[in-house]
Amino acid sequence: GSGRAYEAWLSYSQRGGDVQIPNPYRQCFEHIVVAEETDIVHSAVEELKHAISGILGHMPTVTSVLDTPCAIVLGTTESLSKLGGWIQDEEAGKLTDEGYLMKTVETEGKLIIAGRSDRGVLYGTFHFIRRLCMNEDLSRLNMVENPANELRMINQWDNMDGSIERGYAGRSIFYDQNRFTADEQRIRDYARLLASTSINAIAINNVNVHERETKLITAEDLPDVARLAGIFRDYGIRLFLSINFASPIQLDGIDTADPLDPRVREWWKRRAAEIYAHIPDFGGFLVKADSEHRPGPFTYGRDHADGANMLAEALEPYGGLVIWRCFVYNCMQDWRDRSTDRAKAAFDHFQPLDGRFHSNVMLQVKNGPMDFQVREPVSPLFGALKKTNEVLELQITQEYTGQQRHLCYLIPQWKEVLAFDTYARWKGSTVDQIVSGKLFGRPHGGIAAVSNIGNDENWTGHLLAQANLFGFGRLAWDPRLSSEQITDEWVRMTFGEDTETRSIISCLLLQSWRTYEDYTAPLGVGWMVNPDHHYGPNVDGYEYSRWGTYHFADRDGIGVDRTVKTGTGYTAQYYEPNASMYESPESCPDELLLFFHHVPYTHPLKSGKTVIQHIYDTHFEGAEKAEQMISEWTKLKGKIDHDRFEHVLKRLIEQADHAKEWRDIINAYFYRKSGIPDRKGRTIYS
Ligand code: GCU
Hints:
Layout: H1 4-7, E1 31-34, H2 39-56, E2 61-63, E3 71-76, H3 77-83, H4 89-92, E4 100-105, E5 110-115, H5 118-133, E6 142-145, E7 151-155, E8 175-176, E9 179-180, H6 184-196, E10 201-203, H7 211-214, H8 222-233, E11 238-243, H9 247-252, H10 262-278, E12 284-287, H11 304-315, E13 321-325, H12 345-350, E14 361-366, E15 389-395, H13 411-419, H14 431-435, E16 446-450, H15 466-477, H16 483-495, H17 499-519, E17 557-558, H18 578-583, H19 593-596, E18 599-600, H20 611-634, H21 642-674
Parallel strand pairs: 1-2, 1-3, 3-5, 7-10, 7-16, 10-11, 11-12, 12-13, 13-14, 14-15, 15-16
Antiparallel strand pairs: 4-5, 4-6, 8-9, 17-18
Helix pairs in contact: 2-5, 10-11, 15-16, 16-17, 17-20, 20-21
This protein binds alpha-D-glucopyranuronic acid.
Alpha-D-glucopyranuronic acid (GCU) binds next to loops.
């Protein structure tokens, strides 16, 4: 691929002269001076050459000696100190391992990009390119950046038959027909996209590890896995594998996978040794155990700490990590059972284990207690563990948010999650402080997300869904970046500098999450989707299922009572004052009311509307906003290239159509249940 959709936000060649580089700095772009060559620095230089030649139409020379007056100079702080005295010790001292600094040395005509490590050089280079594309003033570059999170990870849910669990952008770029694909360039280009946003880890197979994928840790597949690891390594990305907890049984016919059985422990140690013989910098294991029918320690009467620690011991000699998922709940619930609350499960399973996990174990916790709904409260597990490393898990792939047929830009949602104050230690104990490891001084921390890419030409199915992938990486590096800033970066990198284009696309993105929420499940209740594939409205689709996902709508009211006083007691899993805030319907935020409370349709919200009127209003308005997105986008006709214009237009039309389906089904359902008419008399299909 070579089109703009394929090149995504690294598409430079058609910037149409909208990048201006004033003199004297223009001359700097003739020469790149590289103080040292590692594979990663080499990648950085290639990216810089590619960007400069695309934007300016000439290929810069690359040398390792300083023989020109003006140049871009890049390298590690250590190697640069041998070339010139541009960086003070004090400046260099501010950098952590992956950090970088950038500065203009005006007197010498130099633009300096320096990393503490070669990965820092790569991130600095991509940042430099971004600034270039955004026409920022090069005469005053002066910045130091360090990542907030050590682990910035992508989880692929790819299966080796080429399918992708919850994938909406074609088939796997990694596998086909139970083999590795031959298209290494595609994987390299993916690595480039990820590295450009600072991603430094990837798990290359689905957390549901089926029979074929179980073999990925064996001699049969390790050479291929090592080949992929090599591609990602060039871009500073460490490779992880999802593993099957029952591997010893499945691969070697051992009669148990009991984590306390010496044979099992020995087995995993030998596996680790073999993996590291092929991949010396192997990242570690991602584990879904005792969850949705996956095997795990429970079978043997052991707990999750026993399971995770066994793997941690096997990986520990090599510096590997165990990323253990907390998505553990009873997926065989009886809907008649009102005492079990799925939302409570992760906390109940893991909080009591605090302090028992080895230091190279990280617990990966989904942002909400249920499963990536358009609106959920933040999981109370964040901050509940003080002696355990935590990783936040987000879902870039839009399983419940329109499956990349609808536009739903998730950065604003993730920002709310990261900024949520858990009060775990004091006021200001935000989720970003917890997962980075800062709040409790943890050795490891980070953010992971389920990828939204496949082998579609434009990677993400919906072109604008690229923004979610880009934004995730940017937030993982710096959770304090605003939604607006990330959006602006992505739009300008992808569509150029035209003011109207920028403002229209930014507005579309920034409003899309709210719009999607408006025409789908109301007030935090979730789950009103078709079972299994999760696309489209079905209010009672999950109401009598075994998944623990109910809304309890009857003729009088709707919502799940999760209070301590009269409900499941879930609110007690939060620290104060959050527990009290959620416990009372008066202080519970409107948008989460039905997550925490069962209320009559006539219950007044803080907005002054009743619940039923809110449902009608948001559904009419949401569908209308979806319709307006089409006319907004249409203003861009002729301003952006035909292919990308038509592609997005088609998706927006489909979305508007489908939003009406949502509107009418949800409104009809609640009108029929409640018998309460719309105060504004709009059409509801009774
Ligand atoms: C959701 C999703 C599954 C996935 C699971 C998980 O339930 O629908 O496809 O396997 O999450 O995160 O493990």
